Every structure is written in structure tokens, then in C-alpha cells.
Amino acid sequence: MKLSLRGRLLVAGAVAVAVALALAGVGLAQLFGTHVERRAMAELSVQLDQVLAGLALQDGALALATPPADPRFARPYGGLYWQIGTADALLRSRSLWDHELALPPDRLADGEVHAHRLSGPGGQELLVLERSVALPRRLGGGTARAAVAMQTADLAVAKRAFVADMTPYLALLGLVLIAAQAAQVTVGLSPLRRLGARVAALRNGAATRMGSDWPSEVEPLAEEIDGLLAAREADVERARARAGDLAHGLKTPLQALLGEAGRLRDRGNTGAAEGIEHVVGTMRAHVDRELARARAAAQVRSVTADAGKVAGRVVSVLERTPAGGRLEWHVDVPEGLTLAIDAADLAEALGALAENAARHARRRVTISAQRSDGMATLSVEDDGPGLPPERIAAIAARGTRADEAGAGTGLGLAIATEAAQAAGGRLRLENGATGLAARLDLPIPAAEAVRAKT
Asked: Which ranges carry the Histidine kinase domain (predicted)?
């Protein structure tokens, strides 16, 4: 299954948003952890100052006369610890119980502070802040190494709580960003949808050019399409001109041959005259067919034809012929029905079908039309004997005739078929209620279809 361009952009954007927010979440959690650790170090510094400020001599020995106020220092394994070491004594908080902070053997200048991560009571990791101080004479002199510590598990808990609080907001932000990206993709791809609609309008005849109202990225494509259309229209004109030249070039010699046939008939040579007339008739039919094919191949989609008017003209011509003059003609075509086909091509196709119906009808030929879903069906029905089902599929082929015993070249149905296919339609043959029914399914111009629906 191929993913659409819009789908690809949406998926790529959603993945990018998810990755970016995930990285942002990791970065924010890391920054928060650093901030919490910095705040913990500041708190430990205050605690260390309090421990050093509470030192005093009691009974000639160094002691912590005023312990820090935080109750965790007095609770065994409470999470906050202090320790003071001198050359001949080691003071510890009750929270350390029987544990001693194993400070690294580094040298500290007076007042210098070091931070460490050490193992504490019960194997818990501790964040340790130590300071070396020179004791005054009232405290017995000498150097003391004081340290306060807190378990890092509290920092990890704070970090996890921050991540838990942050995750829903990041998820909400992700949804908002994806929605905004979807709107951006929709707006950005709207010219492509317009492009497809305009190409469809060119195809069904609702427009003749792409126009110039396009973004700069799409405008070159629209200009190329317009250039192709202009070149095609030039080809159309050349093809029609060549078709006209062919018609004029062949009709004069054919007319001369008919004149020669007439002179032969006047001299009593009827057989030769009929032979020439038959050959000329066949040649004329082939010329007409090739001219129809040239027009169909060069047809422009924007042409239209009024089905009722064309049907009326075809009937008025056939009523003057011997075969058509004996029949009753009935035209039932909705007024104003417009078809997406050249009027001359429609007249030729409809004329071929009506002429065929006139040859086989007993008393009546009906031409009718119906609309359905952007298409119209133009039907020519006679009240003749119809055709066996096995003959219907073959008679529209080149040179195949409905009545092999009658006159004609059999090209009328082929001409009608090619004209219908060139316009985007088709020819169907079937036995109707009274005789043979030839149905032309032809497209309705887009603008006409919209008006019909409204």
C-alpha cells in the first residue's frame, strides 16, 4: 500500500515531534537533576555551617554542643548525616549509628570544600560535602575535617516525580504540535489539490488553461501544462486543415468518376456505370470515415454539442431521403441537454445510427436521451426485426454490416463507435422492445452536470 504525500509528511512530522519531545524530556530531566543536586549542595553547605558552629569543649573534650535542628540527624539511618574528625577524636551523628563515613584521603586547605559520592549506611549512596577547618584555641586548636551527607535516593525520587509531572504536559504539547503540523501540511498541499482539480477540469472541458494563480513552486508545472495544451491545439488545427485538404482533394476526382459513370449510363453501358458508382460510393465512405477519425483524434475536450438540436438536424435531413421519408420520426431529447463532444462528430455518429435504423425500421424510429451520473445516453431505436444476439458483438467492427444482403459499406457503426470513444463514451447495441436499439453513452460537461444536480 502506497502512502500518500500528505500521509508521509504527517508520519514524518509526528515522528520528528515525538523524537524532539523525547530528547527535550530527557534534557529537562537531566537539567532538573542537576538543579536539584545544586540545591542539595547548598542545603548541605548550610548544614555544615551549623555543625561547625555548634562545636564546643565539654569536660576538656571537643563535642557538638548544639546539633543541627533537622530531626533526620537524630534518627538512625535517617538520610542526613554529619561527621567531624580530629587528630584524636571522631564525632558522628546519631543517624550514622555505628557507621563511619570513609572520606577519601585528599588534602584540603583551611576552609576548602570538597564534594564526593560515597557509600553510606545500608549501602545507600550519599552525596557528601566536607570542609577542613583550623580550630581556634577555645576549641583546643588543631585541624578538624567536618562532613555532612545526604542520601542521593531523595534526589532520584524528586527527579522521578518531576518526570512524572512533566510527561502529561509533553504529551499534550506533542498533540498540539502534531495538530499544528497537520494544519500546516493541509495548507501547504492545498495547491496540489487545486492542481488535480484544475487538471480534471481541463479533461472534462470545464477549463481551457491552468492559469497563473499558483504559488511559485507550482507555477512552472502549470506553465508547462499550458504549453502542452497550446501545442496540442496547434496540432488540432493542423489536423483539421489536413483533413479539409484531403476532403477537397478526393471529392473532385470522385465527382468526376460519377460524371463518367453517368455518361456511360447514357450510352447504354449500365453495368460499367453501376460498377463505377459502387466503387465511388465505397471510396466516399472510406474517406468520410478517415475524416471522422482525424477529427476524433484531434478533438479538444472543451467542445460541446446541444443533443436536441443535433438530433433535430439529423432527422430533418433523413426525412428527405427515400428510406427516411416513409417513416415516422420521434425525437424525445430534453431541451438544453449539452454533451461533451464536437457537434459535427455527434451529427456524424447520430446520423450513421439513424440512417442504419431507417434502413431496417418498418414504420417508426425514436431518438431519445436520458441523464445519469455525469453521463447521458442517446438512444436510436427502430421497430425492425432486430438482430440475433451473436451478431450484435460483431457488427461494430470495421466493415461489418448489420444486413449483409443490403447496400452500404458497414462503416457507419464503426464511425459512431470511434466518435463516442474519442469523446470519452461508448456505443452499445442491444435488442429493444420493438427492434434494434443503438445507445451512445456520452459525458456531460462538468458545469452542465453541476447545474443538473442543483
From this structure: 245-446
Closest listed residue to residue 394, CA positions, set 378, 414, 379: 414
Across-strand partners of 345? none
Q: Residue 304's pLDDT is what?
A: 85
Which of 157, 184, 199 corresponds to the end of one domain?
157
- Phi then psi for residue 292, to 5 deg, are -65, -40
Domain closes at, from 301, 319, 334: 301
**Helix 412-422 and helix 270-297, axial crossing angle in degrees, nearest 10:** 10
- Domain tally, the chain: 3
Identity (one letter) of the amino acid at 388? P
Could you tell me the CATH number of the domain that includes residue 307?
3.30.565.10
Four-CA torsion 6, 12, 18, 20, nearest 10 degrees: -120
The per-residue pLDDT for range 192-221, each reduced to its tens digit, is 888 888 888 887 767 888 888 888 888 899
Tell me the CA distances in angstroms from 41 to 105, 156, 351, 397, one per residue in order. 21, 15, 101, 97
Q: E strands along 289-363, which residues?
A: 305-306, 328-332, 338-339
Cα(429)–Cα(442) distance, integer angstroms: 14
- H or E segment to which residue 84 belongs: strand 80-85
What predicted TM-score, i.e. pTM, was given to this entire model? Answer: 0.53
Q: 316-345: per-residue pLDDT in tens?
A: 989 988 888 899 999 999 998 999 888 888
**214 is a domain residue:** no
